[in-house]
Amino acid sequence: MTDLATLATPESLVRTRGSVGDYWALLKPRVMSLVVFTALVGLVTAPRAMDPVLAIAAMIALAFGAGAAGALNMWYDADIDAVMRRTRSRPIPAGRIRREDALAFAIVISALAVVLMALAANPLAAGLLGFSILFYGVFYTMWLKRRTPQNIVIGGAAGAFPPLIMQAAASGEITAAGIVMFLIIFLWTPPHFWSLALYSRGDYAEARVPMLPNIAGAAATRRQILLYSGLLVPAVLAPIGLGQAGPLYAAVSGLLMVLFLAGAGRIALGRAGDPDASARDNAPARAFFGFSILFLFLVFGALLAERLLGIAAFAPLISFPAGGA
């Protein structure tokens, strides 16, 4: 097994100060793009409109905060990233950026993000953004990820904050809509990442990260993917019952949820992640991982489209006090 301590030494991880592109990579731009999109939906669907200039500034702050959390993760996980095939080309393990430079960059960007959000929006949104950065960069990365197979379940909260933050930025409150969007992302995260963990379990085992397939086994992971996919159903349908969405969202989310459950069912009935699983056995997990990204984008896209097209939401079956939960 690869010696993580050896890979984490300055000699093996540090050779240059890095280019602009390397620092951009530290922000995890692919992850950031989905985070920013869900945050944008939170902003556009907020109960009160925000000044356009301040809204743009708040979105920039949110993007910086998401990127800073990713940079903190890359700084701390450089030893793990050096072992895993899909991450060993990242800037730090590849020797293009020094770890201390990555940490300084992450701290500066985090501070700028929180200050900008406070100036553009309000203390509540800034506080939520700061908490989400600490939650992902410290609580998840430094503690949960290496200690419990439930790391993704608890740590998934970090990626669920953006729409809640932007709802708070526009309204100054924790809104029912923001909570619902938080829950959609929170419950989507475990099946999304566990499908990746199933066909990447060898990488995680080599890096000694206690992902669920390596601790509880592939069969238990496949069952958990199906369980959390079922729990996701009421969260995805909640905007309809709460009067936050209309017929377009109902049609799109309903179809997507059927496809999501079907994909989870194929994984549950298969052999993905078993130690002797073939590429064919792992194909459903790979397909599900890719589809799950599209799923989240289209679910939030339907909410955004309804607001932009002026499609009226259904009458709420459950009412909350005006403006908040």
Describe the protein's architecture and organization.
Helices cover 74% and strands 0% of the residues. The longest helix is centred in the C-terminal third of the chain and has 31 residues. By secondary structure, it is mainly α. The protein has 15 helices and no strands. The protein has 2 domains: 173 residues, UbiA prenyltransferase (Tetracycline Repressor, domain 2, Orthogonal Bundle); 151 residues. The protein starts with a helix and ends in a 16-residue tail after the last helix. About 3% of the residues have low confidence.
Q: Key features?
A:
74% helix; 325 residues; 2 domains; mainly alpha; flat; Tetracycline Repressor, domain 2
Amino- and carboxy-terminal Cα gap: 50 Å
What is the count of structural domains?
A: 2
Strand content: under 5%
CATH superfamily of the largest domain: UbiA prenyltransferase
The largest pleated sheet is described as: none
**What class, by secondary structure content?**
mainly alpha
Helix coverage percent: over 70%
How many strand segments? Answer: 0
Supply the CATH class of the largest domain. Mainly Alpha
> What do we call the CATH topology of the largest domain?
Tetracycline Repressor, domain 2
